[in-house]
Design goal:
Blueprint (H helix, E strand, L loop, with lengths): L6 E5 L4 H13 L4 E3 L10 H13 L5 E6 L3 H7 L7 E3 L3 H9 L5 E5 L5 H13 L6 H10 L1
Parallel strand pairs: 1-2, 1-3, 3-5, 4-5
Helix pairs in contact: 2-3, 4-5
Length: about 150
């Protein structure tokens, strides 16, 4: 990856431990990581953290973000309510690649109880390194935004 922009990350309690491992992975990958929480595995409302990351990406404070909760479902639903956010819940490498190539996803969502750390690292690496293809896919994204 040539463009190493800072990235924002957030999780709830169910994915706290995976988030901590991902932060190390991202730092080792050469990215500056802003962690908006949660800071422990004590029970929290995932919506609070989903909104913080989605708002930051929506307002162009960050180009990309990563969200995690137990399944990833709640975070993806929360994030996709924000303008210009294209949050993709991915549990495999192919979905991560296609979410960037065809959908220009700007938030990757992972389920902490669904994917293990090694798979999560591969999904993230693929997601970060896959460019948006543009063309007819850009037209489709613009249609969504209308």
């Amino acid at each position: 990856m040539t463009n190493k922009q800072p990235i924002i990350i957030g999780s709830d309690h169910a994915a706290f431990e995976l988030k901590e491992k991902i932060k190390t992975f991202l730092s080792d990958y050469g990215l500056t990581v802003t962690d908006i929480g949660t800071k422990s595995n004590a029970s929290v409302n995932y919506v609070d953290f989903g909104k913080k990351v989605a708002k930051a990406v929506s307002q162009k404070e960050f180009d990309k973000g990563i969200l995690l909760c137990g399944t990833g479902l709640g975070m993806s639903m929360t994030a996709n309510r924000f303008p210009q956010v294209r949050a993709a819940l991915c549990s495999d490498i192919f979905a991560a690649r296609m979410s960037r190539l065809h959908n220009d996803s700007n938030i990757l969502v992972l389920g902490g109880r669904v994917v293990g750390d090694i798979l999560a690292f591969e999904i993230i690496k693929t997601w970060l390194e896959t460019p948006f293809e543009g063309g007819r896919h850009l037209e489709r994204i613009q249609t969504i935004d209308q």
